[in-house]
Design goal:
The protein is an alpha+beta fold. It has a single domain (3-99), classed as Glycoprotein, Type 4 Pilin (2-Layer Sandwich). It is 24% helix and 17% strand. It has 1 helix and 4 strands; from the N terminus they run αββββ. Strands 1-2-3-4 form a 4-stranded antiparallel sheet, with no helix packed on it. The longest helix is centred in the N-terminal third of the chain and has 26 residues, at 3-28.
Length: 109
């Protein structure tokens, strides 16, 4: 499978998770503390939490300045590629999303 096809599939998975995170925030006011918390959503809103290679997505919820830590209003989501390890190129390249948008690198507080 070529890299462009894999990236398209990965983007679709990221989008499904981002939609589930948005649904969670609408229901519970803040983003979940862990991806496991998405199990509180109705079954048809729960995304697959593994990337194209069966590796778990990495997630971190965080609060903006002045927002309580227990009510995160931001998140970062990552896939470490086929090898499941940070860094790499080609199919092993890391992919990062913050609040539903792909970014080249994560900027966390």
């Amino acid at each position: 499978m070529d890299i462009d096809n894999q990236r398209l599939k990965a983007s679709k998975k990221f989008t499904r998770i981002a939609l589930a995170l948005d649904q969670y925030q609408l229901r519970y006011i803040s983003f979940p503390l862990t991806l496991k918390d998405l199990e509180k959503l109705p079954p048809d809103h729960r995304p697959d939490l593994t990337d194209e290679w069966g590796n778990p997505f990495h997630y971190r919820a965080y609060a903006s300045e002045g927002v309580p830590e227990y009510e995160p209003d931001n998140y970062a989501l990552a896939s470490f590629g086929k090898d499941g390890l940070p860094g790499g190129t080609g199919l092993d390249q890391d992919r990062f999303y913050q609040k539903g948008v792909e970014v080249g690198q994560l900027v966390l507080p």
